[in-house]
UniProtKB/TrEMBL annotation:
It comes from Nitrogeniibacter mangrovi. This is Yip1 domain-containing protein. Keywords: Membrane, Transmembrane, Transmembrane helix. The lineage of its organism: Bacteria, Pseudomonadati, Pseudomonadota, Betaproteobacteria, Rhodocyclales. The keyword Transmembrane applies. It comes from the Bacteria. The chain crosses the membrane at residues 52-69, 89-110, 122-140, 176-203.
């Protein structure tokens, strides 16, 4: 049964979403019950952004600030040449923009059908799919470029996997190949955006 923002049961179901976000690694392979619960929920956009996106998207900016103050040389950063607080804010905005892009594409690109995810469900799936990307920023605690690259690659792969599983959960009657195709298209757009952002970040912050 779909839960709407004005439904008194919405709060209880929305509160159950946080454990799903934190348990997203398990949802990559199993988590059938968690995906079923997600498919039944339709939290408001305000709840998804306020409870999931905005707080958890702050992981990468906070880890960037940590790395810039503790081991900037490991990443070739110039801590004295930039206001890293503002860089962190821009990174947080980019993280939020990524979720907005994924949510919009998931809602627009899925064909019209009774099983088409609502806008609220599309943005919820986008937030859950972004969770591995946010978690991958934790490798900034390790002063190693190799660890950072491996973490990012694993985060991108996990994001794609979450998109596929989420689309199949939200559209149980659809073909598996169709879910993979839609997930790849959405993830490709996000990947291009992040390559451009990461390139601009390197150009502007790395020590010459």
């Amino acid at each position: 049964m779909t839960t709407h923002p004005h439904d008194p049961g919405a709060t209880g179901q929305d509160d159950a979403l946080r454990p799903e976000l934190l348990a997203s690694p398990a949802m990559l392979w199993a988590g059938g019950e968690a995906w079923t619960r997600v498919a039944r929920c339709e939290p408001s956009l305000g709840r998804t952004w306020g409870r999931l996106v905005m707080p958890f998207a702050a992981i990468a900016p906070l880890m960037l600030l940590f790395a810039s103050h503790t081991h900037p040389q490991a990443f070739g950063l110039a801590p004295e040449a930039h206001n890293w607080e503002w860089v962190a804010v821009l990174l947080w905005l980019a993280e939020c923009a990524t979720v907005w892009l994924m949510g919009t594409m998931l809602h627009v690109m899925v064909p019209e059908s009774p099983a088409r995810p609502s806008r609220e469900q599309a943005f919820l799936l986008a937030a859950l799919a972004a969770a591995p990307l946010w978690a991958s920023a934790m490798v900034l605690a390790v002063p190693s470029v190799a660890a950072l690259l491996v973490g990012q690659l694993l985060g991108q792969a996990a994001c794609l996997r979450m998109l596929v599983r989420g689309l199949r959960a939200l559209r149980p009657g659809a073909e598996a190949l169709e879910a993979v195709h839609l997930a790849v298209m959405v993830h490709s757009a996000v990947l291009v955006l992040w390559v451009l952002l990461f390139g601009l970040f390197l150009i502007s912050t790395v020590t010459p």
